[in-house]
Write a structure and sequence with these properties.
The structure holds 2 protein chains of 2 kinds. Chain A contains no helices and 11 strands. Chain A is mainly beta. Chain A has one domain: Sandwich (Immunoglobulin-like), CATH 2.60.40. In chain A, the strands form 2 sheets. In chain A, strands 2, 4, 5, 6, 9, 10 and 11 form a 7-stranded mixed beta sheet that branches. The radius of gyration of chain A is 13 Å and the shape is globular. The N and C termini of chain A lie far apart (36 Å). The radius of gyration of chain B is 13 Å and the shape is globular. Chain B is an all-beta fold. Chain B has a single domain (4-111), classed as Immunoglobulins (Immunoglobulin-like), CATH 2.60.40.10. In chain B, strands 2, 4, 5, 9, 10 and 11 form a 6-stranded mixed beta sheet that branches. Chain B has a 5-stranded antiparallel beta sheet with strand order 1-3-8-7-6, with no helix packed on it. In chain B, 0% of the residues lie in helices and 54% in strands. The chains are: A mainly beta, B mainly beta. Chains A and B meet through β4, β5 and β10 of A and β5 and β10 of B.
Amino acid sequence: EPEVTQTPSHQVTQMGQEVILRCVPISNHLYFYWYRQILGQKVEFLVSFYNNEISEKSEIFDDQFSVERPDGSNFTLKIRSTKLEDSAMYFCASSLRQATYGYTFGSGTRLTVV
Amino acid sequence: QQQVKQSPQSLIVQKGGISIINCAYENTAFDYFPWYQQFPGKGPALLIAIRPDVSEKKEGRFTISFNKSAKQFSLHIMDSQPGDSATYFCAVVKTSYDKVIFGPGTSLSVIP
């Protein structure tokens, strides 16, 4: 069964550093997403991306966040200057059509900011 | 604002029993209602979903019951098995916004 692959599985970074979280969506999917889950809490939407543009973003997704699809296979989330409160599981998801058809989530990257 | 409420926060059910998780939402504009299952160390996975034009949907042991007027829906897991032990999230979607709004989750433990 096709999978969404995320790397690394765990990243530790110092406060103020930049991090890039990487995702390889399912190859024929067209819609891409980032969500995050702070430990023990609900999954929160960050951003959706389609046709090389952000189509929707939450209030969490401020100027320190950016997304990119640098080539035909990768989808990245960059956090420019990490804060302690950015520590969370970050999930990438992709979908052939929009959200109503169900996403496929990756296994996540656990980001720890120290 | 909490657009989706979910209960209970945790649930322990004996093997073979029925697990019931409830969800309530606030905005009548939502038009797609999925349930996600999450195992430790994994991302959420779509389990079953319903649209508001039907009151019930069944897939195997999993059933969604939907009450549009009360703005509530629930997940029933029949003949619960230890392998069903996971966190379950209800969610709501407004199709014109390409995002899923998750509930806070229910941790289900099915004991032998």
